Amino acid sequence: MARIGISGWRYAGWRGRFYPPGLPQRSELAYVGERLTAVEVNGSFYSLQRASSWRSWAEQVPDDFVFAVKGPRFITHMKKLTDVEAPLGTFLASGVLTLGERLGPLLWQLPPNLGFHPDRLAAFFDLLPRRTSDAASYAAAHHDADKLKEPAVTTAPVDRALHHVLEVRHPSFRTPEFCELLRAHDIGMVVADSAGTWPMFDEVTSSVVHVRLHGDEELYASGYSDAALDRWAEKVRGWEADGLEVHVYFDNDAKVHAPFDALALQERLGITPAG
Question: How far apart are the two ends of the chain, measured CA to CA in Å?
Fold first, then answer.
């Protein structure tokens, strides 16, 4: 089953439009969990989250709901993937592993001003743990406790595969060498529709296809037409037919299109949430 969801869920403008009037803010994630099958956690990009928050989020959604998690911008945008052993360990120790079976792909988004540096990418990919148990061991060995808001979490409730996907925004990545590098390290290439703002890459480079829909005609703002949703549904069916794990997240949240577009795509694919 493909996972269809939204990038983030806590938006003031959604209240009274997607969320019913009077719905408590603390109930918004559960409301999403009853209607969709996944959500992308964006807050982890801006700052380390509390371990208690990760545990709480996992408790608010059905057992088969999935959280894709965006890696910290400190690693991708500030450090630009260099000298990041401690920041990576601290992120993994922040509590994300407590999601257990609900933990989806880890998303690493590079800034538009960072071009293709194969050696730097390869060195970063070599750091990334590929099982949750390995991530827990890495967290125990490399985290900086002073950077955490709560005690480090250096154990994993389940031992399972951990997938990583990469979103890039610089045209220099449009080279076969980039695709080959991703395949060699089993990193999924993010298919990002940004209304033409940045290049879109759609090569399949791992068993996971991760799609981010930032807006059909206007970045973060415009919704997807019926025809556009039909096209994306056809793409998803094709990837599924190839035996791939598919995640689609709508990030066109500015005018409250994201949750309704996600519901519409989910309906086209015949997906019924467990909630």
Answer: 15
Instruction: Report the C-alpha gap between 251 and 262 in whole angstroms.
Output: 10
Answer whether residue 78 is part of any domain. yes
Single pTM value for the model: 0.96
Q: How far is CA 71 from CA 128, 159, 195, 232, in A?
A: 11, 20, 23, 26
Residue 126: strand, helix, or coil: helix
Q: Which two tokens stand for residue 79?
A: 């450090």
pLDDT in tens, 100-136: 999 999 999 999 999 999 999 999 999 999 999 999 9
Assigned domain for 274 exists: no
Q: Locate tokens 């467990």: which residue?
A: 274
- What domain range is 217 assigned to? 3-268
Phi, psi of 177 (to 5 degrees): -60, -35
CATH number for 171: 3.20.20.410
Residue 5 has pLDDT above 90, yes or no: yes
Per-residue pLDDT tens digits for 53-75: 999 999 999 999 999 999 999 99
Residue 151 domain-assigned?
A: yes
Alpha carbons 263 and 98: distance in angstroms, whole number: 27
DSSP 76: I
123 occurs within a structural domain: yes
The helix or strand, by DSSP H or E, that contains position 49, with its residue range, turns out to be none
Q: Which ranges of the chain would DSSP assign to H, the alpha helix?
A: 28-35, 43-46, 51-59, 73, 85-92, 118-127, 132-142, 176-185, 226-241, 258-268
* Residues in a beta bridge with 165: 107, 188
What total number of domains does the chain contain?
A: 1
Q: Tell me: the pLDDT tens digits for 224-236?
A: 999 999 999 999 9
